[in-house]
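Final report, results section. Input specification for complex C-07:
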Amino acid sequence: MKKIQMVDLKGQYEGIKDIVNPSIQEVIENTAFINGPKVHQFQKNLEDYLGVKHVIPCANGTDALQIAMMGLGLKPGDEVITADFTFAATVEVIALLQLTPVLVDVNEDDFNINVEAIKKAITPKTKAIVPVHLFGQCTDMEAILEIAKEHNLYVIEDNAQAIGASYTYKDGTKVKAGTIGDVGATSFFPSKNLGCYGDGGAIFTNNDKLAHTIRGIVNHGMYERYHHDVVGVNSRLDSIQAVVLEAKLPRLNSYNKARQQAAKKYNEAFKGHDKIVTPVITASCKEICDACDCHVFHQYTLKLKGVDRDGLVKHLNENGIPCGVYYPIPLHKQKAYADERYDENDFKITNTLVKEVVSLPMHTELDDEQIDFITTTIINYVNE
Ligand SMILES: *Cc1c(COP(=O)(O)O)cnc(C)c1O
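Structure output:
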C-alpha cells in the first residue's frame, strides 16, 4: 500500500508535471515575476470558471479577507459577525482592522454558521456577516442574504475551503460559492482544493466599483502611478504561482470529483455505525451524486459519539494514518479573541464539536486500498 498522506501534493503533481515544469521555466525566462501576463490570464480564466465579473488576485487568503473588509470601508468599532468554529484567519483580520468580531455558534449538521445565532447577535453596530463555507460545503446563503438585506449588512464569503462548490437557490439557480455575497475571498494555500506551490489568494466580486477600490488597495492604494489615494497594502500573486493555478484550474472539477468519490467510499464503509456520524449534506440533493458539486470535501470530517477521540487519533497515527482535528478550540475561547460579552450557553454546538470531530485523509490521489485500511482501522477501534 502507498504511504497514506493527509494531502498528497506530490502525487497530484505527477499528473501535471509536463505542463507545470515548462511554464515555470517560461516565467523564469521572461522574468515577469509579479503582475505579469500569466497572472492576468489566470484571473480571466478564474472569472470565467466562477461566472463572476471580477477576480482580484492577492498574496494569500488571509489578505483576501482583510482587503475585502478594507474595500467595503468597514471602520473601527463596526461589528462583524462570523462563526466560532473555523480557522482563526477569519476572526484575525476582523480584529486586526479594529473592527469588533462577534463570534456565533454553528449548525450541528453542516458545521456552518447558524442563521438564528446571527439574528440574535445583530445590534445597531453590526455592519457585516462573514459566513465560512466550512470543509467544502456552502452555508445557507439565501437565509443570510435575507438577513443582510433586512439589516443593511454586507456579506463577505470566506470561500477558502469551498472553491468549485455550487450553491443552489430555492428557485433552482446555481451559482459558485464565493460569488454570492457582496464579496468573496479565497486561498490558494497548497493544501486547499485549488492550491498553488506557495502562498496565494483572491477576492471575487460582481460589483464594479468595489472591484476598482480593491484593485487599488492591493497595490498600495494606487489608482494612478505614485498617487496614493487610500491606505493600501502590498498583496500580489506571483507569476510562478499563477502558472501552477492555470494548470490546475481546468482540472478543478475532476479534482473535486475525486474528493467526492473518496468521501462516498468513506460514507459507505461507515454506514450504520451508530458511534460514527458521517458528513451531512444540507443542500436539497442530500447526497453525493455524480451531478452534485454542493460539497467539495476540503475536509472529510466525522463526528464521534461516545468514542475516545484523542485515543483514536493516537491509534491512527501509530498505524501510519494521519488525521487532523479541525478545530480543537472554539475561537471564543482563544486568548486573542475571548471577550467577556460571550455567554457559554450561546456556544453549545461548537463546544461539543471541538471534542467530537476528526478529519480523515482527503485529497485527489486516495485509492481503495488506502480507504479500506483507514476505515477498517477506525471501525475496529470504535468497536473495541
Ligand atoms: C486557509 C484558510 C484561510 C486563510 O488562507 P491563507 O491563504 O492560509 O491565508 C482563511 N479562512 C479559512 C476558512 C481557511 O481555511
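Residues 60-62, 86-87, 89-90, 132, 158, 160-161, 187, 189, 199, 201 surround pyridoxal-5'-phosphate (CB under 6 Å). Residues 9-250 form a domain with the Aspartate Aminotransferase; domain 2 fold (CATH 3.40.640.10). This concludes the modelling results for the funded period.
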